[in-house]
Amino acid sequence: MEEKEFKERNEHNEIFSKAVRAGKRTYFFDVKATRGDELYLTITESKKRFSDDNGKFTYEKHKLFLYREDFDKFLNGLHETIGYIDSGEFPEPEIEEGNRIRNEFTDLDFDELGDDIGNKH
Fold this sequence. Notes:
There is one protein chain. By secondary structure, this protein is an alpha+beta fold. Helix content is 29%, strand content 37%. The chain has a four-stranded antiparallel β-sheet with strand order 1-2-3-4. The protein is flat, with a radius of gyration of 20 Å.
């Protein structure tokens, strides 16, 4: 894909953008559309860093893609987490379908997740 075609395509699928400056970081909230015209959100954190290697400033970016079907769960999780930070109190456990309890805190080592991938019991 040529650079011009990539730029035109990238500009086409961006519907709305909001930048929020917060100290040394800038957060970008971008609404984009898939090829099927489904809207989704990208959240990008951009931090300005000084590189000792070349003596210049660079931008370190981290991006999160959030799709419409996950908005409510994401917002609920974010709200509960911020509530915990503000109050120091754990949120009440919520009952979901099948009586599974959500919001339990667990010691989880992400290295352990790799062992279970592809293994069926």
